[in-house]
């Protein structure tokens, strides 16, 4: 799916071509933002993380070796930055609001135009949501997910099963 133009833009941007980088930005911004928003379920954080993703992308583009599709590499970079930022913020902010309260506060139906499934995904507990997004939506294997700190393959599988069950129940209940 990666076009020759995108491959050429990756090569040119890695050499410092700002216009090529701008084309890559416009090509991938929506997908990166969607991934990051689903992972963190917080629009303000997603805005900050996406900005950081593209800043780091500009700085690290020369390290892309082409062993995987550029989009896969970019999504991995975005995921790592998002998870790192979430861990940093969790250390600094106390969690006095429940996940459900935060989800309702952050994603009021009248305020935000978003699909029903996304609203349900945002209500999942943090680690469960992350595993679901990475496995079901991004196609990461449970082994790949387990390569990130603090999660085992079995935990990834259990979290994914829990997410699917909770989403199915919510969809059946019409929530």
TrEMBL record:
List UniProt keywords, sorted A-Z.
DNA-directed RNA polymerase, Sigma factor, Transcription, Transcription regulation
Residue span, RNA polymerase sigma-70 region domain: 24-91
One Pfam family hit: Sigma70_r2
Q: Where is the RNA polymerase sigma factor 70 region 4 type domain?
A: 115-167
UniProt-listed SUPFAM superfamilies: Sigma2 domain of RNA polymerase sigma factors, Sigma3 and sigma4 domains of RNA polymerase sigma factors
Q: Would the keyword Transcription be found if you checked this record's keyword annotation?
A: yes
Is the keyword Transcription in the record? Answer: yes
Q: Which GO terms describe its cellular component?
A: DNA-directed RNA polymerase complex
Q: What biological-process terms (Gene Ontology) are attached?
A: DNA-templated transcription initiation
Molecular function via GO = DNA binding; sigma factor activity
Family listed: Belongs to the sigma-70 factor family. ECF subfamily.
Q: Which NCBIfam families match?
A: sigma70-ECF
Q: What is this protein called?
A: DNA-directed RNA polymerase specialized sigma subunit
Its taxonomic placement starts with: Bacteria, Pseudomonadati, Pseudomonadota, Gammaproteobacteria, Alteromonadales
